[in-house]
Design goal:
With about 250 residues, the protein is mostly beta strands. The protein has 2 domains: about 10-40 and about 50-125, Jelly Rolls (Sandwich), CATH 2.60.120; about 145-160 and about 190-245, no CATH class. It contains 2 helices and 14 strands; from the N terminus they run E-E-E-E-E-E-E-E-E-H-E-E-E-E-E-H. A hairpin with a 2-residue loop joins strand 13 and strand 14 (about 215-220). Keywords: Disulfide bond, Secreted, Signal. Belongs to the meteorin family. One of its GO terms (cellular component) is extracellular space.
Length: about 250
Amino acid sequence: SGLSQEAGSVEQLSLHCAEGSLEWLYPTGALRLRLAPRLPPTSAAVKGGSPPHVTACIKPTGTFRGAQLYLEREGVLELLLPEAPRPRARCFSWLPQEKVALFLQATPHPDISRRIAAFRYELRGDWLARPALPAASPSAEGACRPCNDTEILMAICTSDFGESSPRGSERGEWPRKWHWDASLGWPGLIRTPLRCGVKPGPGTFLFTGWLHFGEAWLSCAPRYRDFQRIYEGAQRTHQNPCEFPVD
């Protein structure tokens, strides 16, 4: 709460969790949020490597008021969220040796009692191995192109889901929602932007992707027979980035 802060003060906080939320009541002064996540061993466990980047995504609540959020990178500030932003996520990445923080600065108002600056965040390693997260850069070139063989293999290793091979069915909404067969694996929805023109069709697919603010977003989705061919070919040449059960 800003009521416990002195006017013009900057309070220092550290965000260690891989995901969470922050709610700043009655903003006054500023908060400096150091990003120091304890990341789970996802892609870092692939062939003994280490993730080249750490990625953060910030999603404001629809009632975000009373402050502006900046990315502080090596002492330089970049505006991420203005006051009263659209409730969509902003994502950015950095190298482990870079010094980054979030700087949440209160905007002056005569009445601060009705203002709350609140957002959710996610911090993860190597999220940008694939083009861009859907919310990170909606107009990014290449976001809708098919995955090549290398990207398919990496998607299998870094995906938040993809342990089974469901048959996809599509509903005409934005974003498109792909239903998993509950008998084959985790039941739920997988989303992909409508502009990518994904269409339903017969066959068995291996869906991969990320869980992003509680929603599953599609990355690579090869036909299962194509995945088997790519995986077995990489196995013969010892170029698999990780092991995956193929039946």
